[in-house]
Amino acid sequence: MRARDLSVVVAARDVPPKVTRACLRALFAQTQPGDVMLVTTDRHDWAREFPDLHVIDAGRDALTPALWQIGIDAAHGEIVALTIAGCTPPSDWLHNIRSLFAQSTHDGIGGALDAPVRGSAVDWAVYFARYSAYLPPIEPRMVDDVAGDNAAYRRAALDAVRDTWRAGFWEIDVHRALRARGQTLALVPDMTTRFTGGVSLRAMARQRWRHGRQYGATRRGSRVFRIMTSPAIPLVLALRIIRRVRTKRPDWMPQVWRSLPALLVLIGAWSAGEIVGLCTGRSHARFA
Q1: Right CATH for 3-122+133-195 from 3.60.150.10, 3.90.550.10, 3.40.190.10, 3.30.70.580
Q2: Largest Cα–Cα distance in the chain?
Q3: Per-residue pLDDT, 218
């Protein structure tokens, strides 16, 4: 693939400039970085530091799915890769994305997210809350979902389901629409990236509440039954995370206990948002 056949959309929200800078340096250090776009909620002069970077100011209140949607709309590549400023990709990340799409017929590919090895307790809590389903190592396989924080798609496939991400790139909805069209998603070890963190507990709790509300408002099935069982949501989420870590990375269990207070805050924020979404059936535009 030529460099401009790949567009990279980096969503930057609630992270310090030094974290975003590490992500961008890792991308531009790679061979043929392609068209790199930073869709951000901060006011830092990134274009001065990275002259080849396409910077888009998304406004202070936009959530990550909205940042991705803005970036995808502005992208020109045949392949669109998504990540966040809180992840630092390895030196072969872009090369592997190009190779994976050249060698397969999948319409979406994602990978594992490695842990913030030297991160704070909050960084580990955010990691477990968001990525427990994508702990390394992974075996290559077809899946129903991949994490948007480490994913790439054929642009033609995304355009075919544009209605599902017009108001924000919420992975669950987009992936459901892709599968309904017979398109496939794969999880591959060659696309692993590292979550580095940097978000405060307060900012992440607010994000999780808003994401939970969106999820609850758009869930399918019996709303009455889901509302009745909603008090169990925090326990179910906590046990699921602990089970995944204990099964796949028992060496990380000390980090689970270390980060547990912050993790419970994040689980509680998501659960409260989901319950509100279930009860109202609405996710107001400002929550998207």
Answers
A1: 3.90.550.10
A2: 53
A3: 78
